[in-house]
Design brief:
167 residues
């Protein structure tokens, strides 16, 4: 898929989002993110999308300066966090949006090769390079250990800054 790395329009802990081609963006994983981790995210994103869950189509995978990227459709609109800050949505309504999205992901058919949530979070916390204190990381894993066993998907990074409010 032809595209060119354009302006940076978003940034997260493990990736940056850049304009790519008309109507497209590239989610470019940071250099410290292992390629297999980035490929796994692309795989799971595809699986949730193909199952009709709340995920974007992965249009392509690209490598730019040694960094793996996923080409995605560009969604235009404010993030849920921006909407909250602008008082365009109430806290209760925003919580409902997050809960519905989490439930939709959880109800999507789970690919056979999906990692259990605990394994995924353990790996993610290991990538945080100390930005998450050990006591908090241990607490998160302990909370997961207390959950009922379930092989369903979990977004693991669902927050108002990651939800784009489209028409």
């Amino acid at each position: 898929m032809a595209g060119e790395l354009g302006e940076k329009i978003g940034e997260g802990a493990f990736s940056d989002v850049h304009a790519w081609a008309p109507g497209q963006v590239v989610k470019l994983f940071k250099p410290e993110v292992r390629r297999r981790t980035a490929r796994y995210e692309a795989h799971i994103t595809r699986a949730v999308f193909e199952a009709g869950g709340p995920a974007q189509a992965v249009l392509d995978e690209v490598t730019i300066d040694g960094r793996l990227g996923m080409v995605l459709p560009r969604l235009d609109g404010p993030t849920l966090l921006q909407s909250l800050r602008a008082d365009a949505i109430t806290l209760d309504a925003a919580a409902e949006v997050l809960a519905r999205l989490a439930l939709s992901v959880h109800q999507a058919p789970t690919p056979a090769d999906a990692l259990p949530v605990r394994d995924y979070m353990d790996a993610s916390l290991g990538l945080s390079a100390g930005s998450v204190p050990d006591s908090i990381a241990e607490g998160v894993l302990a909370m997961i250990d207390r959950l009922p066993l379930d092989d369903r998907l979990s977004h693991c990074d669902l927050h108002p800054g990651n939800v784009i409010m489209t028409p």
